[in-house]
Structures are given as C-alpha cells and as structure tokens.
Amino acid sequence: MSFVDVQNVLVVGAGTMGAGIAQVAARAGYATQLFDVAPGAAAKALDKIAESLQKAVDKGKSTPDERTQALARLTAATDLDAAAAHADLVVEAAPENLELKKELFARLSKLVKPETILATNTSSLPVTAIAAAAKGPERVIGLHFFNPVPIMKLLEIVHGERTSPLVLTAAKAIGARMGKEVVVVRDAPGFATSRLGIALALEAMRMLEEGVASAEEIDRAIELGYGHPMGPLKLTDQVGLDVRLAIAEHLRGELGERFNPPQVLRRMVRAGKLGKKSGEGFYKY
C-alpha cells in the first residue's frame, strides 16, 4: 500500500475511550470526527471533551487558545459512510466483542479510501483476526490507548501478521504527534500491557479472597512498595470489572488456567458492581 499523510481522523465509538482518543487527536492538530451508533452520543461526548479541555486550561496544562482550536477541529458525525469516506485514519473504540469488531472492520474497509489506516483500540482481542475481516488487512493495526486517554502517556501499538511496515511507521508518527510514548508489540494474546496487568489484578483478587489483606492494604503495598501510581484493585475499578472479566476469560482460552477469573470477580460482575462507572467495585464511589 502507499504511504498516507494523515490529516483527517474518524473515531468510531463515543464512550469514555472514544471521546478521549478524539480529544487527543484534535489537540494534536487532526481534523477529527466522532461517530456513535447511539443517537446523540457523539454530541454528548463533545460536551464532555469541552469540559475536559477546560479543566486542562484551569490547571495550566493548556491555554484558552489551544482549547478553542481543538474544539474547532472536532465534529460529531451522524453519517458513518460519509465520515469514513474522508478519513485518513479510522480508530475503532467499540465494545470488546470480536464479532462486532470484525463486522465493523468489514464495513469500514469498503467505505474508506484504499490507503486509509484502520486501527482498533482493543485491549486484548487478536488484531490479526479483526484484520482478516477487512478488505486490505495490511492496513489494519492495533492502537491501544489507556484510560484516561488525555492523561496516560502510553500508546501500545500492535502489529498483526499482515500489517504493512508503512502502516507501522505511520502509527509511530501518529502516536508521537499525539504526545504519546509508544511501545510496539506483536499480536500475541493480551499483548504486553493487558497480559501483565491482568496477571497482577487476578492475583490481587485471589489474595483478597484468601483474606491476606484488605483491598486498600493490597493496593497500598503495590503503590508504596513498587511505585505503581495506582494499585491493581483500584485500577480494576477504573477500567471496569466487566471489562477485566472479559479479558481474563479471553486469556484463559488462549493461555490456560493461570488466567482463570477468581470467583470474587464473577460475583461482583453478576451483582452489577462494575467499578467506578457503576458507583461500586472493590471501592465505593
């Protein structure tokens, strides 16, 4: 495939991750469209982005002019076909469901230009399998952002079995322009970050089940003893217990019983205790 000069970005999915990705794309100077299948969701996300940008101004991390310019680059797309036709880069931020993502990439790959880069923000699903559903799988890559996207410095770039070296080079440049530090990994189960993060979180949950210590004490031990900014149980609340359960079950299928989700995680998800987004997880909010 030919090299593409990325200027126009389309983010598909206006949830927490999609809104964050759209925000950093606009701040990086890209003309950015945000689309969601739910009516009005993209427009609501733009309001939240405006609030987030204002907080950055209030904290002295941005200027009023930078906020104004970023918002001017942002639009809520109502027609996916039209938005995709003009995009140089599409970043998918849909729920962690492989079949859903495959269907979406099959559709998007028929709508975009031949040189458009198609990226998935999946945290654990196989990029190669997602790419196989697309027309032109060589232009599909994983861009795994971290929550909250405007604050977290890391971008994990995942190259699939058929990802073009040109696309990988472009992805590195995109990450740098967005102000991210990038790590490049191959398409292995859980990549690097989810695999390591889940392993630590699951062991912390087992320790909690066994009464080794309270959630607060386990988290403080990791934060103070190993310099982690957030303990594994508090981080699970931030990510979402349902999300972590889905990742653990996927990794169990790929890598074996060491990723078997503890019963405490299953019980809490069944009870609707999903973490910060539901008001209660390992902590109350």
Word description of this protein:
- The protein is of the alpha/beta class and about 280 residues long.
- The protein folds into two domains: about 180 residues, NAD(P)-binding Rossmann-like Domain (Rossmann fold, 3-Layer(aba) Sandwich); about 80 residues, N-(1-d-carboxylethyl)-l-norvaline Dehydrogenase, domain 2, CATH 1.10.1040.
- The protein has an eight-stranded mixed β-sheet with strand order 3-2-1-4-5-6-7-8, sandwiched between helices.
The neighbouring-strand order within the major sheet is 3-2-1-4-5-6-7-8
- CATH architecture annotation of the largest domain: 3-Layer(aba) Sandwich
CATH topology of the largest domain: Rossmann fold
Q: What structural class do you assign from the helix and strand content?
A: alpha/beta
Radius of gyration: 19 Å
CATH homology superfamily name of the largest domain: NAD(P)-binding Rossmann-like Domain
CATH class membership of the largest domain? Alpha Beta
Can you summarize the main beta sheet? 8 strands, mixed
The ordered string of helix (H) and strand (E) elements is EHEHHEHEHEHEEHEHHHHH
**Low-pLDDT sequence parts:** none
Shape verdict? globular
Share of β-strand residues = 5-15%
Number of helical segments with 4 or more residues? 12
Features:
14% strand; 8-stranded mixed beta sheet; Rossmann fold; N-(1-d-carboxylethyl)-l-norvaline Dehydrogenase, domain 2; 285 residues
Compact description:
The protein has twelve helices and eight strands. The protein has 285 residues and is α/β, with parallel strands linked by helices.
